[in-house]
Amino acid sequence: MPALGRHQRHPAADVGGRQDPQARAAQAVLGGQGAAGELSRRRRFAAAPITSDATNRAPKGWNTAMTRSLGKMVVGNILATAAIRFANDPALYCAGTDRRFTFGQIDERTNRLAQGLSGLGYGKGDVVAFLCSNRAEMVETYFALARTGIVGLPLNYRLAEREMIELIRAMGASGLIYEARFAGVADAARPLVRHRIRIGGEASSAEPDYEALLAGASSEAPDIEIDEADPFYFNLTSGTTGLPKSYVLNQYNNSTLGPMFQAFDMTRDDVAMTVFPAFGRVGFAWIAGAILYGIPHVLANFEPNETLALIAAERVTIVNLVPTMAAMLLPALAAAPRDVTSLRAVVFAGSSLPASIREATMAKLCPRLYEYYGMQETGALVVSTPADRVRRPDSVGRPIAFGEVKIAGDDGRALPANQLGEILGRSPNAVTGYFDNPEQSARTFRDGWIHTGDLGSLDDEGYLFIRGRKKDMIVTGGQNVHAAEVEEIILGCPGVADCAVFGLPDDMWGERVVSLVVPQDRADLTAEALEAHCRQHLAGFKTPKQFIVETTPLPRTPTGKVQKFLLVERFSQASVN
């Protein structure tokens, strides 16, 4: 398996007037009824127009057209420009299928997919879901949707089938692109979508095949006007119900990746690697940023031994991990040593980095670590570089270019340096609200800032320190789990009288999900039965890793709220003892 060298060229693949984008929030509009057998309720998305104050006029002689750029910050241009600049250079190695692509080949395949989807009747504002592991088709789908104005709905394959189907229904997706191994979900989605496009597996006349769709379509770029404020894709984050909160990222949000990659000191001499799931914002941003700079990329699904083997074989220089991944890589490396000396940097994101994992990673995997802070709604706000790590080892760093951070009191006013308050943030790639959830939007997006729910402080030199979270959210293995959702499922288990779900520190997962359950009188509850019930109704990462059954009532305030801080203190101390 040849390595992804900087100047290596690959053999041919298998087939040949701007407005302020942040002021134009994506707005959902319901379409009409479809034909029999098609989705009865079809959503299209459009950008809301900017309103202007007639009394606010430009100076005499000022031509407002002169203030508008002729070019646009849209996602499709990231790949189009790279295909011109680096056409025959190595772009992507898809480890799962052992296929290699140049920038020009990805660009051509993306155009074919865009044309194929247009030929099936999908257009600007339609919603198409896609369900796929980390492989080239995932990258092509993102960029094809960006070029057509179709709104993407990337599905988290870790969710339960019920959750995925409900998302397809709720977001009004009228198409589904899916990897063959998820055929069960595709079958369940049949009544909801017009087309199901299969990636891999046995050929079938009943539905379009991905490669056949590409082979029969034009390789010309679609002639569709795309604006910066046009919705690009839904991103999903945990919510208080069975469905995650969702928001729409627009074209501009996903085109402003430069500052983040500059903060990591990345150049075309790098070979980047993505093992983050590409259905999430971090995974796609890492891929798109590498394409933006013409950096060759290894795309793989995370498995410790395979990841180490790929780093060695492809001479990977920089990889993005969550702490849980590093905790799995280190013992695998000790058990079967590999040559990972090509690594010049490891970038951490997703959850707080325990000191034990940080030190072990620096000693055994790579001495240069970057860490960045942000939430899915804000994108990356703050980066800690290796130099920052020396100066402020307990800090997550300082804001990146165009990233803004403020520490605020309960009244929203900025606090002085070194005072604890809520972390507020904003940046060009931040979103402006949740989809179809005005109440939560009003709580989180206020006065031009995103309220993260995290507690922290800034020192005199602008270094950010994270001190905890206001939200009742558990971050386990880089995934957000809302305790209320898990509690609702557990309370539905026969024999449960009461329960509380909380997070405890864990070297492997950052935090592990723990449930304390109070049984009904004479109920014979076991941890095994509770786990089986949760796995039936929840994604695996949401299922508690520890079930504790006690007959003692939960500690509550006079108003009936569970005092979870007492549970965390008690069971954290029990773990230490």
Low confidence ranges: 6-43, 45-59, 61-68, 238-243
Query: Strand count, sense and closure of the main sheet?
Result: 9 strands, mixed
Q: Helix segment count?
A: 16
Q: Any guess at the CATH architecture of the domain at 473-576?
A: 2-Layer Sandwich
CATH topology grouping of the domain at 473-576: GMP Synthetase, Chain A, domain 3
Family: Belongs to the ATP-dependent AMP-binding enzyme family.
Domain AMP-dependent synthetase/ligase: 82-435
Biased composition (Basic residues): 1-10
Region (Disordered): 1-37
Question: What does it look like?
Answer:
With 577 residues, the chain is of the alpha/beta class. It has a domain at 473-576: 2-Layer Sandwich (GMP Synthetase, Chain A, domain 3). The protein is 28% helix and 25% strand. Strands 4-3-12-11-13-14-15-16-17 form a 9-stranded mixed sheet, sandwiched between helices. Strands 18, 19, 20, 21 and 22 form a 5-stranded antiparallel sheet that branches. It has a 4-stranded parallel sheet with strand order 6-5-7-8, covered by helices on one side. The chain starts with 25 loop residues before the first strand and ends with a helix. The model is unreliable at 6-43, 45-59, 61-68 and 238-243 (pLDDT under 50). Residues 485-561 form the AMP-binding enzyme C-terminal domain. It comes from Phreatobacter stygius. This is Long-chain fatty acid--CoA ligase. One of its GO terms (biological process) is fatty acid metabolic process. Residues 1-37 are annotated as: Disordered.
